[in-house]
Design a protein that fits this description.
- Keywords: ATP-binding, Nucleotide-binding, Transport.
- InterPro entries: AAA+_ATPase, ABC_transporter-like_ATP-bd, ABC_Transporter_VariousFunc, P-loop_NTPase.
- This is ABC transporter ATP-binding protein.
- One of its GO terms (molecular function) is ATP binding.
- The chain is an alpha/beta fold.
- It has 2 domains: 200 residues, P-loop containing nucleotide triphosphate hydrolases (Rossmann fold, 3-Layer(aba) Sandwich), CATH 3.40.50.300; 79 residues, no CATH class.
- Helix content is 32%, strand content 29%.
- The protein has a 6-stranded mixed sheet, sandwiched between helices.
- Strand 8 and strand 9 form a beta hairpin.
Length: 297
């Protein structure tokens, strides 16, 4: 059985009195491309920094690939991390970056890095500061992947890229996953990008995990129910109410069916990924939990 790529229990990070991440519990299987979504300030960068070993938790527990993050040089070599804005050294050439990567990483694949730089058309002599945003992202991706890690972590890698550069980056990412057999955790504001490349999802909002799981299972288990007001007075066991909207005539519910069988309620319709994500984000912003009480005549 493969070791989970990340496990966390009651993982919490606070800065003074400010909660950056609160009581996060996760179990992410190996071999997944994980989409981490949520608004600014939700805790995405904090979770990724904890996974990379850049910061330590205030409380709780986290393991990456079965060990404490950044426990030693061997563990560091197993994880590739690309921070926001895909940072590179502006004064160094592309070739200098590859030499530095080779010097710092014991598992560095020199031929892989050289082949990728040639494939994407980067001039080895060109300074990184003179590259376009898309080219810098590709350079950072190449450096991270040439470590031959077991896990690649990306913190908003395509946020500043134009649509063509973003598509090229994601295409290369999928090629890397197939070529080097690596797990990926990718934070993004763009649900369309998550839907395109990811098979596992974590939704963060207000410093808390709202829901996590396989994307196909999550979308198959979330439904919209529409009925005359006052007729939806209760829900079956194993069906959680996520959101409720009421008019004088009609009630609309978003529910999560945690049962192994499809929801057997007349008029129930599955919702798409974007609607599901937005529902959880809106719920996290609310001051009160949704209730069925309002639907009763």
């Amino acid at each position: 059985m493969n070791t989970p790529v990340l496990t966390a229990h009651a993982l919490t990070k606070r800065y003074g009195t400010h909660p950056a991440l609160t009581e996060a519990t996760l179990d992410i299987p190996a071999g997944r491309i994980v989409g981490l979504v949520g608004p600014n300030g939700a805790g995405k960068s904090t979770l990724l920094a904890l996974a990379a070993g850049l910061i330590r938790p205030t409380s709780g527990h986290i393991e990456v690939l079965g060990r404490k993050p950044a426990a030693d040089a061997e563990q560091l070599a197993r994880v590739g991390f690309v921070a926001q804005d895909t940072p590179v050294y502006a004064g160094l050439s592309v070739a200098d970056h590859l030499k530095l990567g080779e010097h710092l990483n014991p598992t560095w694949d020199k031929q892989f890095a050289a082949d990728r730089i040639k494939q994407i058309g980067l001039d080895p002599a060109k300074q990184a500061g003179r590259l376009s945003g898309g080219q810098r992202a590709q350079l950072a991706l190449t450096i991270a992947a040439a470590k031959r890690p077991e896990l690649l972590i990306f913190d908003e890698p395509v946020a500043a890229l134009d649509p063509l550069a973003r598509r090229a980056f994601l295409q290369n990412l999928m090629e890397f996953v197939a070529e080097i057999d690596v797990s990926v955790i990718l934070s993004s504001h763009l649900i369309s990008d998550v839907e395109r490349v990811c098979d596992h999802l974590i939704i963060l909002a207000e410093s808390r995990v709202q829901v996590a799981g396989e994307i196909d299972d999550l979308t198959a288990g979330h439904y919209r129910l529409v009925a005359p007001r006052g007729t939806l007075t209760d829900l079956p066991d194993g069906v959680d109410l996520i959101a409720a909207d009421h008019t004088d005539r009609q009630t609309t519910l978003i529910v999560h069916n945690t049962n192994p069988t499809p929801l057997a309620i007349s008029g129930a319709e599955p919702i798409g990924l974007e609607d599901m994500v937005l529902t959880y984000l809106h719920r996290a912003e609310g001051t009160t939990a949704p209730t069925l009480e309002e639907t009763r005549a």
